Hints:
Layout: H1 6-11, H2 20-44, H3 46-56, H4 59-67, H5 77-111, H6 113-143, H7 151-196, H8 200-217, H9 224-244, H10 247-283, H11 295-301, H12 304-344, H13 350-374
Amino acid sequence: MARIDPKAVLEGRMPGRPPVALVMGLTVSSLCALVALGIDALYGGAGFWVGMILAILPIPLLIALVLTLDRMEPEPPRALVFSFMWGAGVAVLGALVLNTLGLLYVTVPIFGEVRGHFVSAVFGAPVIEESLKGAVLFGLLWWRRNEIDGFADGIMYACMVGLGFAMMENVTYYMRAFDLGGTKQLQTVFILRGIVAPLSHPLFTSMTGLGVAWAATHRRGRTIAPAIGLLAAMLLHGLWNGAAAMGLGGLGSVYVLDAVVLAALLAVVLVERHNTVKRIEHVLPLYQPTGLVTPADIGMLRSIPARRAARRWARALGGRGAAKAMEDYQLAATELALLHKRAERGVAEPHWFEARRDALLDLMGLARQAFLRTAPPGRRQGPPWADPGPSGFVPPPSQGPYD
């Protein structure tokens, strides 16, 4: 079998170096983040460093929690990093400039100092910030539509851009709290923003992610769905800002709102994962004549715990190479099932579908051969999920693993 790049096949891209547009986008986003941090440092004094440490502190844990939603069909790391950096750079700096200009030249001159800040927070900031955060999602829809296979993918990218934005915004909030009220006020703000409700921005932008995901995977509503999602994100954001300005009762209501939205999004992800499992059970038997899957192997592929156990078994048997081959096989099989979902919904161009299907089948075959090559010579015992059924991860009786 010809040598192929498993990562490139799984991500649906040409093998080789990262695209120039991606490198440029990361560079611009990073520069914007540095400028935003420089502005905070210029006006923040000692509070800037305290704010930056506290803002960064929960991010690894929050990212890890978000990534747990993406275990069955992980998104390309480069796309997730770009989304995060867009939120932390371009979106933050753009919001800083536009929100400031709106205050100085629109809301404060029209409504006065106090009312102008309220109007800006409730109506201006949500429109500006959700538009800037959503821009990267619209970009993915335009240039990398095939990367979004369902609602979970839209939520994933939205959460990453939201976490980047929230991290940078929290630097400013913590910095101001420390400079104005010392450690006591800083502690209160950190508890409210960093512990009680750290996912507000990801939850708002997830509305846009849902609309973009619908447009990427359906023929009907492809134009209106992203607009509805963006509008819902702005509405949730505006409700949050407005209620948060109304004392403890308002704060309590927006935290309840956060919890309800979070529960709804988790339900969407779980339902979609269940549907993916059903699709695996429905699609992969079509490929049993190729010899790449057996009923026992399909049983392993339909369960995240069984997949994890299969990778552990592969690692114990053949080391990291065997575990990597098993992972590539699992991911290619999942992508194959999701490819059929696109075809069934009429959003897969026939020639692209055939090329993508063949590439995934080639990768499944390559991964299985790589696993068999790493297995101990003379092994004949089947994998734990194939008792009593046959599995493609057992060398044929007529040949050894190196034949």
